[in-house]
Amino acid sequence: MAEVTTSCFSRVALLMILYILHQPCVAESTLIFNVLSFGAKPNGVIDSTQAFLDVWTAACASSDSTTIRVPKGRYLLRNAMVFKGDNCKSTDITFRIDGTLIASSDYRILGQANNWLSFEGVTGVSIIRGALDAKGTSLWACKLAGSTDCPNGGATGTQNGLRIKSGASPSNGFVQGVQFLDVVMFNVQNPIVIDKNYCPHNINCPAQVSGVKVSHVVYRNIQGTSATAVAIKFDCSATNPCSWIRLENVSLTSRNQEIQSHCANANGKIVGTVQPNGCL
Fold this sequence. Notes:
Layout: E1 2-7, H1 17-21, E2 28-34, E3 43-47, H2 49-61, E4 65-70, E5 74-76, E6 81-84, E7 93-97, E8 100-102, H3 107-111, E9 117-120, E10 125-128, E11 131-133, H4 137-144, E12 162-167, E13 174-188, E14 192-198, E15 213-226, E16 230-235, E17 242-253, E18 260-264, E19 266-275
Parallel strand pairs: 2-4, 3-5, 4-7, 5-8, 6-9, 7-10, 8-11, 12-14, 13-15, 14-16, 15-17, 16-18, 17-19
Antiparallel strand pairs: 1-2
């Protein structure tokens, strides 16, 4: 079910009352979809995957601005999910997450998936607040023990590790308040990267700069091995530099080469030991 919230701005000056009474009131409406109304359970036990897909479909079907509200609680999303924007009528969808989205504790379910939660072909999507718990403890315990039964998924031998990317084109979007905590990576290319000049295969790249603003990003307790010489890379634009980036207790090494960090138009703070030496 959807609620409609409206706002109408008017002046209160006494001399304007008669004028206002004769003017049409233009309301800005936002449809609000609550995941609980679509069957989601905030107990962290019952799978809410289908409920989240259904609420996304409902939001996409509207041409109005929409907000998907996730109240407080723990929501089990057992399977990998893709939120597709191909058939979306709305170009203004907000995910407001006041709870925690959790993955299955059985790492084998997501072990073979490329992503747990992903958005494809979307326009005008904002994600506000929220926490993600991918339940990686058991997977990393398996890998650190050297077991051959661990799945090949996860951050092992992947092309990218902790990545934020945006194309070099005008935008009013932003990425802020992101935290990467307690992550282990093995033989990963580009373990830590912010790329605001992303251009697939470097073909037909726009001669512009990214308008996306990236700020307040935290990397804390990150460890593992890098498959590339540049293990930490912040490639931002001079027009919209990356700001308030925090590296805290980061240890990335390589068995085969000397690794380094690279920063362009990025500023922030280094706390504790950071290897390779941070460039902020």
